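Below is how a single chain appears once it has passed through the pipeline. First comes the sequence as given, then the structure the pipeline wrote out for it. We keep one example in the README because the format questions we get most often are answered faster by looking than by reading.
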Amino acid sequence: MTSTVPRTGTTGLTPLFAPRGIAVVGASRKPGKLGAALVRSLDGFAAAGGTLALVNGRDETMHPSVAAAAEAGPVDLAMVCVPAAACPDVLADAAAAGVGAAVICGGGFAEAGGPGVGYQTELARIVAETGIRLLGPNTSGFLAPQAGLTASFVPGVAQVRPGRVAVVAASGGVNHALAFLLTEAGHGISLAVGIGNGVDVAVPDVLEHLVDDPDTGAVALHVESVADGPRLVAAVRALSSRTPVVALVVGRHDVGAFAASHTGALATSWRTTRAALAQAGAVLVADERELVDAVGALAVTRARPARDPGVGVVTAQAGPGLLLLDDLRGRRSRVPELTAATRETLATLLPPLTYQANPVDTGRPGPELGQVFRAVAADPQVDVVAGYALHEPDAVDLVAAATEGRVPDVPVVLGVGGTGAAVTQARRALLDAGIAVAGEPRGVAAAVGALLADARSRARRVGTAIPEQVPVGVAGAHDEDAAKALLGRIGIATPPRRVCTDRTGAHAALAELGGRVAVKILDAAVLHKTEIGGVHLGITDAAGLDAALDRLDGIGATRYLVETMAAPGVDLVLGARRDPVFGPVLLLGLGGTAAEALADVAIRLAPLTADEAAEMPAELAGHVLLEGWRGGPVLDPAALGRTAARLGDLLVANPDLDEIEVNPLRLTPDGLLALDAVVVTRPTPREADDAHPHP
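Resulting structure:
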């Protein structure tokens, strides 16, 4: 549960991550105690010249208070290892002693409920009043190997070496798990932070701190919940413009109850959070293993910006090469056929029976492998080279080959299969040479996918969206006719229609419109007309119209909408709504009401440019249906982009407009046509009183 109490004064995070001195409050000489484990972890900090003060009022050999420790030497950081009930007093004493930051490791706060909620509220109050920075509570701390600082009680953290990857995790446990996985993969850590309950220091704070960090080459971001969506997006956008950010968002499946008990915060919408982070420039991954491969690659290399980058695949064994190609295709990576000139060069290097169009199969690799890499990397269609080979030092020196094959601005990701110290050494040598490495084809594909996503993101970055002039002052109830009139004012086409208050008017509308019409109940209070039998289609004559009106009268209709039937096509849903965490968002999907349930949707934050919105259809799994499937209509992405951007602008410009949904938005041979629309506005004070009368 993140504090909502505003701070009256704040400091940066230097006292937290680069302290001159540390006081361990609750230090112990009993090996099994948390305070003893933390002191052992901080021995390296003391050995490197930092001040380490032990505080325990029950032990005469230690300082009785943080204030006493501060009198003996500089103390910028207090590591607090006492029961939850005692933590507020300790934090207040540390702030009074001039300590700039604190870490509260233990649990028993909002995540535990009961008295813990009060303890956490008190911590927030102290932070707000004093400006001391607080990491936690309910965290296992952080690692800053570059500074020789392992501010964690977890065994083994001292084995994590300095490096180029920063980890920013919602969970202290995940923070350490990722640090260990990265270490096993050969990567070092610049900073690894577990946020815990996030009373004060939150993910955006750490991301902002990393923007100017020269030691960080890429950031692994783990997200469970989001308290301030716009601030998180701004932090990721600022950081990713300089340093790659790879994000793993938890919550694809129902984990809400466990998430709430974990940190005291509710899980955030998984789909919206991912979309927001991607729009801000982050690379998205599906699991922790993929996160390690992706962030490890981006820490050593980046591909040049490209809207549709291509991959050249070089494999020394055909079977693993097929696995690699299949995985790349599953990620929608473009694996183009190599040019004739490239194939001619390869023909002079490889046996004639090998496949050389892309992927390039070398057979058993030999001394020519480096030249093969170079030929593929130099192809004008190739932006990244993905390779795989078993470690066979008698046949080829993989490190030398990959180094020889490098072309400027075309990174190589090499999978090295094998086991043992020699393989580990080869992988480490590749990383030191700036060549991304993995142990299996899947890891190569994950790393390449991250490089491609990063390249696409940097290529499509545009300036701040400037909303168009749209209607303002939208308020009050909207029936379908009013909703469609609003769409018309922002340039979204609708079928010809007539509003009718009686049967005579309905028959006149049928005669005027001609052909096949739809007849609907017209009532702003009815949002889902089909579900109550409020829509009747394909009416062509007076008898059919009377039958439809009879049924509408039976459900209480007093007004009717008679509308020309649209031509067949492909139905989409396009909506704009206010997300409680991220604010105005746009959603585009296929399949009408089933689209979101099937997860075939694309989401963007609003406002956005028409060019940004035009990229949304390509993300849909069913995008092929919009490309003339079986002789059907073809979508103009630019037209869809303009429509979606205007809808987002309308929501942004009208604070009383909560939601507007066009469903279906039909793609017809003549373009996009809104067949139905729903507008939801915030109730006026009188409407709210009527809905909730006072006793």
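Residues 570-681 form a domain with the D-amino Acid Aminotransferase; Chain A, domain 1 fold (CATH 3.30.470.20).

See the next section for the split statistics.
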